[in-house]
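If you are new to this repository, start here. Below is one unmodified record pulled from the training split, so you can see the exact layout before writing a loader.
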Amino acid sequence: MISSDNAVPQHSALLDRLVHTRECLHGFPLSIVQLAMRVGVGLAFFSSGLLKYKSFDYATQLFEEAYKFPLLAPDVAARIAMINELTCSTLLMLGFASRLATLPLLAMILLIQIVYPVDWPDHVLWGSILLFLLTRGPGSFSIDHLIERYFRERR
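And here is the target side for that same chain:
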């Protein structure tokens, strides 16, 4: 027979494990959605940046004819967009500095929307996803979360 003194610590340990498991599962579906959104948006922007890299002449022509940025040469604008898309999307997919990585992408979408208002449905979609990631953060499955957890445990 189990003594009452021994049953209390076992019950407390079991309760602590259940509370911890419940806390882990509480944010689980949202963290999967955030991961899918981060990776999906990151892959879309990365493939766009890779396309600009592979056919830089086409990208320059696109910025010369459609996306006419004032005070910026088309090849410079194409290069800035390419670097922005490649670096920020990589950071976004990894979940490293992901809130900061969304800002240049949002700025690029906004600028392109101003100079080329024809493509607004796509910009609204990508912009709303980026705004969600900016306000909610990268989620549990990210490098940012691991860094934050490390610094919390050090305190």
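Two things worth knowing about this chain: Helices lie at 4-26, 28-54, 56-65, 74-94, 98-115, 120-136, 143-154. The mean pLDDT is 87.
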